[in-house]
Design brief:
The chain is 23% helix and 21% strand. By secondary structure, the protein is an alpha/beta fold. The strands form five sheets. The chain has a four-stranded mixed sheet with strand order 1-9-8-7, with helices on both faces. A three-stranded mixed sheet has the order 3-2-15, with no helix packed on it. A three-stranded mixed sheet has the order 4-5-6, with helices on both faces. The structure holds arginine.
């Protein structure tokens, strides 16, 4: 059986990814209710203010914002499956991170389970795995959790919509060495990107794939080889400024579930204009309370098949 390829540079991208084996798009949405959401234990650079102090969370407002995000998906025709947050798991609302949903070549839905960098967050994994098992998924652990086997699911690893092709980030939460294993288990080639700026600690903080030809991305998060590779994969790359990509706006953590509407935290006016001129429809959804934890729209849901 041919082995899957890892692609690190534009020169190694010898096939146009849009000509690869088609694969269904993930059209189902999982969300985790932020019942036990908290920002009292900082585990990424956005969780502290510039003066080093912690953010104050407005819990009621967080719940209202989460409900509005759920309604935004509903109004676009997606009915999120809701999982309750686990007690003592302050970050579980960010359910993009605990696994990578895949479909085998024979059509079996299979979730590759994350090895989360943070010990407390790692306890979220079995809860999300059970939720997907209830939806008919096989769940596959990716081996013992060690510093060399860290992997944070769809925080770092993103499908090219409709194709058997993944984009994977490493350097902060996911170990570079994991992508051999992910590629084999997902039966897909993976374009691999080193995340060079600690403020962009997951690939989904600096890259949103809008459709199979368009990406929204912040150049400051990538190495020059990575930026060239991204531009080789996508005919159209909409560049965000560092100012709009960084917190408190988090423009690249937007989500386009239908190749048209882009759910995005309001305030990234330049990005919104660029999206409109590229034919997309920005849909502002306030996620300010969650950005205090270093996550916005994209992190707050899991797309599955
Ligand atoms: N506080 C969470 C963490 O640091 C935020 C996760 C955001 N998720 C994401 N996919 N970027 O893990």
């Amino acid at each position: 059986m041919p082995s899957q390829r890892l692609i690190h540079t534009a020169a190694q991208l010898t096939t146009n990814p849009r000509t690869l084996t088609p694969m269904p798009k993930a059209r189902r949405v999982l969300m985790v209710r932020p019942t036990h959401f908290n920002v009292d234990t900082p585990i990424n650079p956005h969780m502290r203010k510039a003066d080093g102090s912690l953010h104050t969370l407005d819990r009621a407002r967080a719940l209202t914002q989460w409900e509005a995000l759920k309604r935004a998906y509903e109004s676009l025709g997606f009915a999120p499956t809701v999982l309750e947050g686990g007690e003592g798991l302050p970050d579980m609302v960010f359910c993009a991170n605990q696994c990578l949903p895949t479909l085998t070549r024979t059509g079996v839905p299979r979730a590759l389970l994350s090895n989360m960098a943070d010990t407390i967050r790692h306890r979220e994994v079995p809860l999300v795995a059970s939720a997907l098992a209830r939806e008919g998924y096989e769940t596959q652990p990716l081996g013992e959790r060690t510093p060399k086997t860290l992997f944070e699911g769809m925080g770092d690893c993103l499908w090219l919509p409709g194709r058997r092709f993944l984009l994977g980030g490493f350097g902060s939460r996911t170990a570079a060495t994991m992508y051999e294993r992910v590629a084999e288990a997902a039966e897909a080639d993976v374009a691999v990107f080193e995340l060079t700026n600690p403020r962009f600690y997951h690939l989904d903080t600096c890259l949103a794939i809008l459709d199979d030809s368009t990406a929204l991305a912040c150049p400051d998060a990538f190495s020059s080889a990575g930026w060239a590779l991204l531009n080789a994969i996508f005919p159209r790359v909409i560049e965000t400024s560092l100012e709009e990509a960084d917190s408190p706006r988090f423009a690249c953590n937007a989500h386009c579930p239908d190749e048209k509407h882009v759910l995005i935290h309001p305030g990234s006016t330049r990005t919104e204009t660029q999206l409109r001129s590229a034919g997309f429809v920005p849909v502002p959804v306030d996620t300010e309370e969650f950005i205090k934890s270093g996550g916005s729209v994209f992190c707050m849901k899991l797309m599955f098949f």
